[in-house]
Amino acid sequence: MPRRHGDQEVATEIALSLGRRLRYLRQHAGWTQAQVSASVSLTPEAYARLERGRSLPSFPTLLRLANTMGVTVDALLGEAQHQMQGGSQAAPLVQDLALEIAVLNPSARESIRSLIRQFSARAA
Fold first, then answer.
1. Which residues, 6+ apart, have CB-to-CB distance to 51 below 8 Å?
2. Where in the chain are the domains?
3. Smallest Cα–Cα separation from 21: which of 89, 86, 72?
4. 1-57 confidence digits (pLDDT tens)
5. pTM for the full predicted model
6. Are the CB atoms for 62 and 19 separated by under 8 Å?
7. CATH top-level class for 7-123?
8. What secondary structure letter does DSSP report for 55?
């Protein structure tokens, strides 16, 4: 299958976005790169390349990363998907908030959901 123009740029954007999210989640959890790399069966160098946006993981590695970080694959790829779909300017903010909420415990997530519903009701 011939490569379409722009595929490399899209892959680069996905890699950079994924790297930012991995770094955020790792730092939020208080883990080192070595701890995460061991948890997902990567060398520390390979994991560091992911965080720097220099490479993309295989699908099995992506699943292990999501499980280790306690988020969905969609949360890891959310911003990249938004960029590929040409979403609104608010979408990156929503994606960032979703990622921050994803790492909270269920009680905290429910509290945030309740607050959002209260604000929505006032705005209506």
1. 19, 22, 23, 26, 33
2. 7-123
3. 72
4. 445 557 788 888 889 889 989 998 899 889 999 999 999 999 999 999 999 999 999
5. 0.65
6. no
7. mainly alpha
8. -
